[in-house]
Amino acid sequence: MQNLLQKKDFYAGLLMVLLGAGVTLNSTTYNLGTLMHMGPGMFPFMLGILMTFIGILIFISGLMTPLEDGERILPQSMEWRGWICILAGPLMFILFGEFFGMVAATFMCVFVAALGDRTATLKGSAILAAGITIIGAFLFSYVLKVPFPLFRWSF
Amino acid sequence: MLATALSDLWYGFGVALEPQNLMWCFVGVLVGNMVGVLPGMGPLATISVLLPLTFGIKPVGAILMLSGVFYGAQYGGAICSILLNLPCHPPHAVTCLDGFPLTKQGRGGAALGITVISSFVGASWGITEMIFLAPVLVRVALQFGPAEICSLMLLGLLAGSTLARGSPLKGIAMTLVGLLLGIVGTDIETGAPRFTFGITSLFDGIELVGLALGLFGIAEFMKSVNQYSDINTRYSKVGIRDLRPSRDEFRRAIPAMLRGTIIGSLCSLIPGTGPTIASFISYAAEKKISKTPEKFGTGMIEGVACPEASTHSSVQGDFIPTMSLGIPGDAVMALILGALMIQGIIPGPQLIKEHPDIFWGLIASFWIGNIILVILNVPLIGLWVKLLMIPYKYLYPSALFFVSIGVYSTNNDMFQVGETVLVGLAGYLLMLLDFHPASILLGFVLGPRLEENFRRSMLISRGDALVFLERPISAFFLFLCAVLILAQIYVRLRKPKAIVAAIPSLDAIGPEKLASGQEAV
User: Fold this and answer.
1) Which residues of B485-498 are buried (b: 16+ CB within 10 A; e: fewer)?
2) What pLDDT, in 10s, does the model give residues B238-257?
3) The complex's ipTM?
4) Range of the domain at B193
5) Which of A51, A89, A147 sits opposite B412 (nearest CB)?
6) List of chain A residues whose C-beta atoms are within 8 Å of the C-beta of residue B418
7) Tell me: the pLDDT tens digits for B253-263?
8) Whole-number Å distance between alpha carbons of B173 and B282
9) Nearest neighbour of B459 by CB, restricted to A11, A36, A57
10) What's the CA angle centered on B422, arms B419 and B427, to 5 degrees?
11) Label partner for B468 (CA 20 to 30 A): which of B102, B146, B177, B255?
């Protein structure tokens, strides 16, 4: 049992079963129709059942195979800083883009994301962010004319 | 038949040589070559970033450029493998085995020279194959009704998800996830919103660009952050003069090149076995028939020529089912198909007839693109080597900006940037569980057409599911599906070790080397 909780296939199978069951249940809220005149719910209903079945198979194959050497759910090193910064980068882009425009959005996105590297410094990240901001503003605003104001002040 | 093929090809060259199209082709292969060289950037992420930029240009130019990125990246990936021992581009992972020892012996330049020649030979064969095979396939496929299309798609999806890397079951699971994601949005036949959870931005469905950039951009960055240590470039000083192989190397490489080409083109005929599998099989085959198999891994030029030729011949061959049947073999092809659909072009057997400019222009551009690549790679080799030294810590933050603005510019909608972040997080979690998210894209692109044809064929058959077995061509495809599944079960139950041992496992040279390769140098 202890071994089972370390196996990737245990969680992988479980995830697919839950997802499949969820989809199957949800698709019954749409009109299933008949086999001849299928409603919008029929195709997802079938996929959901198939997915649950595949999930069970993954689960069983996880039970049948022994634990591999060094198999673990989590990666070798937990890169919390990197992960958070990478996810925060585009979120900064959304936030600053909505309120202050493309320049601020680009700078903050690159700056925050760059801090995710273990050796990153504030200064180095700021220089990189400034460089990308200049290139980005030129490329997307001037050359490609993406409708996204360079600066704005909207609250 | 030869005469029509030649005249069609002539017409294709006319299209591809139009200044506009020539420019897009050049941009494509240049960008592709560049990102191929950069460790940690792949053609998938690049094509997805460029995809929104193609909305404004004509379909022909868009497809020429995006395809150029794909085969251009193959040229660059080899440089990365041979000079740095970094197998960051899966098809070129085996090239490391003999390419890097050659670099250490000071013959890295010659290995690159042989690579360029092999690539060109392989690609040329792949293109020739496409010219003759695609029209034949189309003639057959034009007879297909919805039931046949449905079974063929099922076969394509099954092959694409089970023959690729990793566990076949998990591949199928990912395809199903992709099919489900393709359902999100308004149902085309009844107009009912499905799985939108009341969010208006989801009524149009999930955006292809957002999905691809989440899976191959953000999730990939999360996997690679802090994983690349400083790259050792001690051996990578290569100039134009070094590229010329010696007469002996050349003599040994030519037969290997031809064998690789054949293996690659055979692999490309089976959907799902893309360039990666082709290069691994050809390396194993080359080692097997060699008189000195024990020398492989110590810097045999054959071990570079064969897999490289096979990669390129299969890369070009991959376009055959994609362009003639509308069935993509892997995630890159799915993206290119997606790009066609965004341009309002319905992929499938009617494509050659309705849009000959796209089909023949693309084929002609392959040749032009490959020639540009050969020309680019010889004098610019010094520049590419310099590019190798850009550290990953500068690369991924810049790439994240391109991801964000790329997704934003598809619809000028910030919601989609958020969607991409969520997809990226989910994709990373799936990767931790050993799922390979590439199959998601395959399912996503084919999903809506699969559902449409499935519903249509059931309507025609008045709800009788046996129609798929009663029509002979459809039954044949289903038979192939069954063979595929049974073969996989058989292989797994018999001796899983023997087959794994015969082909150098990707995972065996993959992640460990990324982590420890630099110390081993």
Assistant:
1) eeebeeeeeeeeee
2) 666 777 788 888 888 888 88
3) 0.91
4) 2-229+243-520
5) A147
6) 90-91, 94
7) 888 889 889 88
8) 29
9) A36
10) 125
11) B177
Strand, helix or coil for residue B193: strand
Q: How far is CA B282 from CA B22, B103, B244, B288, B289, in A?
A: 33, 21, 24, 10, 11
Q: Is B186 helix (H, G, I), strand (E, B) or coil?
A: strand
Residue B506 pLDDT > 60, yes or no?
Answer: no
Q: What is the DSSP letter of B231?
A: P
Number of structural domains chain B divides into: 1
Q: Spell out which residues of chain B touch residue A109, defining contact as CB-CB under 8 Å.
A: 397, 400-401, 404
Residue B88, by phi and psi: left (phi above 0), alpha (psi -120 to 50) or beta?
Answer: alpha
Sign of CA dihedral B370, B382, B93, B406: negative
The residue among A117, A128, A139, A154 with the most chain B CBs within 10 A of its CB, best to mutate, is: A117
Q: How far off is chain A from B117, nearest CA to CA, in Å? A: 35
What does the alpha-carbon distance between residue A135 and residue B181 come to, in Å, rounded to a whole number?
34
Residue B432: CA atoms inside 13 Å, Cβ hemisphere, count? 20
d(CA B423, CA A150): 27
CB contact under 8 A, A90 and B404: yes
